[in-house]
Automatic annotation (TrEMBL), chain A:
Alphabetized Pfam families for the sequence: CP_ATPgrasp_2
Coiled coil stretches, renumbered: none
UniProt-recorded name of the protein: Circularly permuted type 2 ATP-grasp protein
InterPro entries: ATP-dep_Glu-Cys_Ligase-2, CP_ATPgrasp_2, UCP005522
Organism of this sequence: Sphingobium nicotianae
Circularly permuted ATP-grasp type domain boundaries: 69-445
Organism superkingdom: Bacteria
From TrEMBL, chain B:
Source superkingdom: Bacteria
Pfam families membership: Bact_transglu_N, Transglut_core
UniProt lineage: Bacteria, Pseudomonadati, Pseudomonadota, Alphaproteobacteria, Sphingomonadales
Protein name per UniProt: Transglutaminase family protein
Record PANTHER family: BLR5614 PROTEIN-RELATED, SLL1049 PROTEIN
Coiled-coil segments on the chain, per record: none
InterPro entries according to UniProt: Bac_transglu_N, Papain-like_cys_pep_sf, Transglutaminase-like
Origin species: Sphingobium nicotianae
Annotated Transglutaminase-like domain residues: 158-223
Amino acid sequence: MTFSEMLGERNEIRDCYAVVQQWVEETGIEGLHRRLGEAEAIFRRIGITFAVYGEGGDPERLIPFDLLPRIFTALEWSRLEAGIRQRAAALNAFLLDIYHRGEIIRAGIVPADIVYQNKAYKPEMAGFTPPGRVYSHIVGIDIVRTGLSDFMVLEDNCRTPSGVSYMLENREIMTRMFPELFVRERVAPVDNYPSQLLRTLQEVAPPACDGVPTVVVLTPGSFNSAYYEHSYLADLMGVELVEPADLVVDEGLVYMQTTSGPKRVDVIYRRIDDDFLDPLAFRPDSMLGVPGLFNAYRGGGVTLCSAPGAGIADDKAVYVYVPEMIRFYLGETAILQNVPTYQCGKPDDYAYVMERLAELVVKEVHGSGGYGMLIGTQASKAEIETYAARIRANPAEFIAQPTLDLSTSPTLGPSGLVQRHVDFRPYCLVGKDIRLVPGGLTRVALTEGSLVVNSSQGGGVKDTWVLR
Amino acid sequence: MRISIRHETRYDYAEPAGGVVMRLRLKPASSNAQTVERWSVSVNGKPVERWILNGYGDAEAVWRAGSRIEAVTIVAEGDVRTVDAAGILRPTDGAPRPALFLRHTPLAEADEAIGAFAERARSPNGPLASLHLLKDLVHDEIVYRAGVTSMETTAADAFALKAGVCQDQSQIFIAAARSLGIPARYVTGYLQDPERPDDEHQGHAWAEAFVDGLGWIGFDCTLGRCPMDGHVRLACGLDAADAAPIRGVMLLGAETQLSHDVQIEALPLDGTSQAQTQQ
């Protein structure tokens, strides 16, 4: 039985959705559609048209916005928040460990090969301790809900999770267009995210920095699908947006070219993949990148956020072990559960999965964004056969999970409210402290019955309210 | 043994090159097998002073040309005192976990032929015996021959040729050791060997493999034995490209001519007289 976020056990409207329900009744469906048109016009004008990380698709396409907010009660949020912070702390502890002594591997909890043989594990990072012992400064955790109090983590994003500009823009649009809603309901603000992000980045300044740290956002350039977000965040933080060609490494320090000459850079919020950061450290054929940047980082002249090699923590093969990481490093029980996951590399799991392909969701271990995924319940016999052949050829490259009955949230349909499946990505900031703004990005699968919320596959976004 | 080394690398650009940046791994570290008495690295006459330890525990520096240049001359030189440590390198703290060196790389990947070759070396007496057998097999069956392979030749291609230089022999050994489940890595350095011809003004390379309880053990397949006191260890990596002593990029490209010269000689064991004359 699908959990509807708006309805209680006896199909009554939950208190937290009362204001929205009232607003819908007052405005009427036609009125809502008119206002949605206005909202889309604003989005187009400011140019927020990009795909969420790694999802591909047309970067010029506007991601559909749904007017009806997704709402968490204060109580729900307090539990989510504790779980998110706990997970962000454990993932960073894991990264610190595996780039040093690897105690969790020695203890036999995480197998050595899924770490050391993993392309996301960067040997260049071994033995180095980044400022503040932080590797992943912005942890995006994808959470799904299957019941009133059942939240599960679908995946972690420890590199450079994107989409936070939607969180900010969605709220901006809602408060601008419907100020009366925010008078009626006490919604926790999210607009301090940029200042919290800046503070987090400044907290991890390198040893060579002895003043107020200079932070920049490093983008691959305007051709990148998330370029809008890069420039938007730089703008809101009041820092420079730079491309690799703007940076130069000299005597172990990094400088950006400015009209008034070179200026020292202390912290780089980089939105470039590891492989393209520095051709002298990573991919030698990369024309992108800043030669010598990694050497300056290891030498304590600059801080890279996230640390190269942080992606090993969000690998799907590693994901399975996160609850055990929480126990191992924090001595706590995971507050947010993982989705039960079968590793096809294990003979028992493999047998289980191959017998139940029609019921399961199968993913590539290193894939992202809903591509290369098999949703057994929606696939044809032929599709399942083709996919099964791929698994047989390379079992360790696949994991499988039960098809989750994601919760639905009321969404504006052509002739009334409809129920559509949603997920949720909060953005947890890790510097000297762990910070979390009360909110995140709610993605909604706009196609009826669809469980895929990715923007490349017909997903949209909603404002997310945390009530106070 | 006391060994004096002078290693000069020169890049000549057909036209002035812009944005030249180089990563240098040209500074040997002291260990249980070697003590660095004196060492300096300079680029175009200017000493390189900012060194960091990289992920493999080796010294690494970055040099950047301030403007367009026509030539880059890199000189690494110094004296190293060595002892015969039976090829065993004692582990240093902070070094990455050995299991990392089971990772396959394009240059040192075992194909079916290398896999079968490795199986011939598998010994019932454990990994150390297997490694010695493997070293002998490579030494005997992969003929040392210059000019048949290049820097880009993979272990599999060199194995098919059954010939190559120390880079190829080492990479074949590494690929085979990994296929036996033994961590192995590529080592660059210098060799002072009375049996080696004098006109071979080259750096040297060999392999190290990890054996539980012992640590990293050197295997020189070119010589067919473990390194003794003639080897000076510089740096390591997953394969030759990863361990390269010099890696460079340039923004505004020009045709580049590369030349090397390595001079190695044994010094008298008592170094005090020389040190005094330098005062």
